[in-house]
Amino acid sequence: MTGRSDDRRVRIYEVGPRDGLQNESTPISAADKLRFIELLADAGLREIEATSFVSPKAIPQLSDADELLAALPRREGVRYPVLVPNERGLARAEAAGVDAIAVFTAATDAFAEKNIGMTVEESLAAFAPVLARARELGWWRRAYVSTAFGCPYTGRVKPQTAVDVARRLLDLGVDEICFGDTIGVGVPNQVGELVNLAQGAGIRVSRQAFHFHDTRGTALANVTASLAAGVRTFDSATGGTGGCPYAPGAAGNLATEDLVYFLDASGWTHGVDLDGVLAAARFIADRLGKPLSTKVGQAGGWDHQTGRATGREAEPRP
Ligand code: HMG
Ligand code: MG
What is the DSSP letter of 79? Predict the structure, then answer.
């Protein structure tokens, strides 16, 4: 038994409100963040990483996390995970009524130390009580392994190193491991190798997710390789924003509109509407005061049945 899934259903895990905004210096109001999240849910996204309960000094853009969660209308069937780095973050998340969290560490000590002020080993020790409590509360639990393909401080990362950290996180009781290509250096053959090594370590493909930053334009090629290897969960950010302030050289996440177009045209189902995503992408680009620079954001979609361009008319809703 390989744990490989043969269905054509893909989960799109939206990180626009969190990863997409965390590195943006233009302040976005809590009301606009809420509107963005609503537009994403309208588009059919069912997992929307809403914000982070981290130090406001580390990530000023998300310092309104408590206020945001207090005002967020929860929709039936939509999960709104938040990043939690420590017990302080957990207490804030609990007070805010969340039911899904993501802890985050890395394959390399150098990145983990810059990002969360802990070595990988220290982070695992810090997450143990956080994940145990989250489990007691019945929350959904994800863990990120950043720098899974390369580290901005120490360079190349062996896939086994990322898998070893992932295995330790799985043993701490997470539901899902998300491998992060934080600085966007991975290529498809490395993705296949990582998926297979992870499976060999007992991490089934149904528990693996991938988070590709599109720094060098390889994100969709990497999605193709992950799909071929049996993975069905991908992170993306509507509007293609994103990056980590502690990962110099990181560019935006794979754009949700580019992912949705690609999946639609390739016969994968996912429940997300491209026009709705484009409306949300235009909304957030407008609030950030930037042109929407993603491929499908600029070109619109293309209906493979009718052979016609689509989605160009979708404008932000008031
Ligand atoms: P620290 O300075 O090492 O530790 O921060 P500390 O415990 O001494 O705390 C420093 C200050 O933060 C103290 O306040 C604490 O009270 C406060 P002060 O006394 O200076 O006024 N503090 C908190 N405040 C609110 N919420 C908390 C919290 N914890 C401590 N939870 C810490 C350690 C982990 C807090 C900090 O380094 C941090 O917040 N880091 C987060 C960095 C971050 O969010 N990075 C981006 C997300 S990761 C990412 O983008 C990668 C990913 O997308 C995947 C990929 O692309 O690979 C997920
Ligand atoms: Mg990221």
Answer: B
Q: Which atom of ligand 1 is nearest to the CA of 213?
A: 56
Q: Which ligand is nearest to the CA of 87?
A: 1
Out of 244, 251, 259, 292, the active site residue is 244
Could you report the per-residue pLDDT of 221-245, keeping only the tens digit for each?
A: 999 999 999 999 999 999 999 999 9
CB atoms within 10 A of CB 9: 10
Start-to-end C-alpha separation, the chain = 50
Ligand 1: which residues within 6 Å by Cβ? Answer: 19, 22, 52-55, 58-59, 83, 85-86, 88-89, 92, 104, 115-117, 144, 146, 180, 182, 211, 213, 244, 246
- Whether 40 maps to a domain, the answer reads yes
User: Can 244 be counted among the known catalytic residues?
Assistant: yes
If phi over 0 gives left and psi between -120 and 50 gives alpha, with beta otherwise, what is residue 155?
left
- Centre of ligand 1 to C-alpha 56, Å, is 8
**Number of compact structural domains in the chain:** 1
What pTM was estimated for this model as a whole? 0.96
CATH of the domain at 100: 3.20.20.70
Q: What percent of the chain has pLDDT over 90?
A: 93
Q: Which domain holds residue 71?
A: 11-310
User: Which atom of ligand 1 lies nearest, measured to the CA of 145?
Assistant: 57
